[in-house]
Amino acid sequence: MAKDNLFLISKIMAVTKEKKDQVLADLVEKMKGAKSVVFSKFNKFTVKDMDKLRKKLEDEGVSYKVAKKTLIKLAAKQAGYGDIPKDAMEGNVAVAFSMKDEVAAARIIYQVSKKNEGLTLLGSIFEGKLLSVADTKVLATLPGKQELLTKLVFVMKSPIQGFHGVLKNTVSGLVRVLNGIKDKK
């Protein structure tokens, strides 16, 4: 009977180990494929709040995963980012992977954390570097990719519009002068 219990326990542990390996492989794959990775702490965060956060993140192409801190640290090492500082791994930790827009995860988590004390930014990985909480907040306040592209197009278009206006006014002034000369004759 004792051997059966021992077999059962070892069978359960093997499944747990397989599950951990699967979670680790998923974390490593997402870290390697993400444009940025944001760490957040959630305490006193309701399921309803978590669902709202996940929905906002998914709409921006961000994957949000809760995992054990040891697995997150190990995944970061295997993905080539080195050791994650201890202050980025406090409390219940979740990881957001921005797949499309580099600042989307940081921006959304930062906005939600301002309204809900249960969520806190802990740090991030951006362009292969580990960023502190302060640097992550700076990243979070940057405009999104679409907004930056819109501003770039506006800046590029402004000189052309000005040049067009100058040419239009010059030509219309010339036409008025010629019409004035025609009317006098």
Written overview of the protein:
With 185 residues, the chain is of the alpha+beta class. It is built from six helices and five strands, in the order H-E-H-E-H-E-H-E-E-H-H. It has two domains: 2-142, Ribosomal protein L10, N-terminal RNA-binding domain (Alpha-Beta Plaits); 149-185. It is 63% helix and 16% strand. Strands 2-3-1-4-5 form a five-stranded antiparallel β-sheet.
Quickly name the level 1 CATH class of the largest domain: Alpha Beta
Which homologous superfamily in CATH is the superfamily of the largest domain? Answer: Ribosomal protein L10, N-terminal RNA-binding domain
Quaternary organisation: single chain
Strand and helix order: HEHEHEHEEHH
Widest sheet, order of strands:
2-3-1-4-5
Helix-strand blueprint:
Elements: H1 2-33, E1 36-42, H2 47-59, E2 62-66, H3 69-79, E3 93-98, H4 104-115, E4 119-126, E5 129-131, H5 133-141, H6 145-184
Antiparallel strand pairs: 1-3, 1-4, 2-3, 4-5
Helix pairs in contact: 1-3, 4-5
Short structural summary:
The chain is an alpha+beta fold and 185 residues long. It is 63% helix and 16% strand.
List keywords for this structure.
five-stranded antiparallel sheet; 2 domains; Alpha-Beta Plaits; 185 residues; elongated; 6 helices; single chain; disordered N terminus; 16% strand; alpha+beta
